[in-house]
Amino acid sequence: MADALVLSHPEQVARLRQSCPEAAGAAVLAGDPCFDRMLAARGHRDRFRRAFGVRDGQRLVVVSATWNPEGLFGDGGAGDVLPALLPRLTGELPADEYRVAAVLHPNIWQGHGPGQVRAWLDGARRGGLALVDPLGAWRQALLAADAVIGDHGAVTYYAAALGVPVALAAAPVDHVDPRAPLAGFLTDSPRLDPFAPLPAQLDALLAAHRPQPGPARYTSSLPGASAGRLRELFYGLMELPEPERPALLEPLPLPAYEPVHRSAPMRVLTRLPAGAHPGEVVLRRWADPAYEPGGDGAVHTAVPEDTRDPGRLDLADVILRHGAPDDRRFGPPAAWCAETLERYAHCALAAYVTGPGDCTVRTRAGDTLVLTAAPGAADADPAAYASALHAWLAAGRSAAGLAEHGLLVRTGASEHRVTVTRLRA
């Protein structure tokens, strides 16, 4: 045992057998504890998704970048891909149908500094991007993900090993040993063109996804058994008896809740289906898109009050504020709404979001209303309810009937029933 070579990854053994067959007999497979911790936490996927602010009906897209000039964050001779890709993801993917998060290699943060990295990604962050702690919650992010956009880094490979759909936006095959399993993964994985429209590429990735067998096989030949195997090996090397208690790995913790925060102006496309459910509004929102939304319907602009460009507030149809209902800095929600309408003459509706399913709004006609997610029937950003109400009123409909049948807001394939309560003056 003293002459054994301890390897956690079968990929290492495969390469050793090719390069040095006489040494391969001394290699001992011990599995991968990191991978085993993720496998053990799969049952908590829904909790992880909620922790990252992913709502029902949303897809979580995780972007992974390693520390390498040929990686997604490096220029690779073709320009900085990631800082341009991330704001396009938050701007092209409908906000109520997607959540976008990024996992950057720790050396990216260390090499450039947190301030510089956040400055580079500021536009995407204002569009709702979540930056995941690369030393903490990246495993939970992979378990929560519906798709991963990555490169040749370990996080992308782990995602493929877990069976998550993966598209490579950087794949430096020429810089990888062709005998390594990673080379096969880079060759066989779907590509994402970071300069082409993104929604259709993601739809195609999810529709055509078939898990590759290689990443899981080469990550660990002993899935779920690494703790016991490593302890057996180490105690054997020390020539000591193993403890009688089971060998266990620390479970992955539940990350702190990170709600979505967007300060970028939103372009909102709405449509009121003819002869549909009373109060029904079909709605899609985009965070500061580079192009005008396409499709049938009316378009309006909803702008958070804390937006980077205050001049956008003068042109907003809907002005938004997120805060606690008892925040004394803004006064009661109804008072903030009235004050906002008085300050901005173009604004037709002001909405103060007071919780994950509630907002108070005031219309230009003087109605103060509370929009509340119906129990068990709505899980959308309440700011979307405010935009739906604006679309309803802008189409010449009355708010009076909404107190009886409420709003039915459709975002993507999800529907959200919202109660409407009029507040007395």
Task: Describe the structure concisely for a colleague.
This protein is α/β, with parallel strands linked by helices.
Comma- or semicolon-separated keywords:
single chain; 425 residues; alpha/beta; nine-stranded mixed β-barrel; five-stranded parallel β-sheet; 16 strands; 33% helix; 21% strand; elongated; disordered N terminus
Task: Report on the architecture of this protein.
This protein has 425 residues and is α/β, with parallel strands linked by helices. It has 17 helices and 16 strands. The chain has helices at residues 10-19, 21-24, 33-40, 45-51, 82-92, 106-112, 114-120, 122-126, 138-144, 154-161, 181-188, 198-207, 213-219, 226-238, 333-343, 382-394, 402-405; strands at 5-7, 27-29, 59-65, 98-104, 130-132, 147-150, 166-168, 266-271, 280-287, 298-304, 318-322, 349-355, 358-363, 368-373, 407-411, 414-422. The strands form 3 sheets. The protein has a 9-stranded mixed β-barrel. Strand 6, helix 10 (154-161) and strand 7 (166-168) form a beta-alpha-beta unit. Helix 4 crosses helix 9 (138-144), helix 6 packs across helix 7 (114-120) and helix 10 packs across helix 13 (213-219). The longest helix is centred in the middle third of the chain and has 13 residues, at 226-238. The chain is elongated. Residues 1-6 and 23-27 have low confidence and may be disordered.
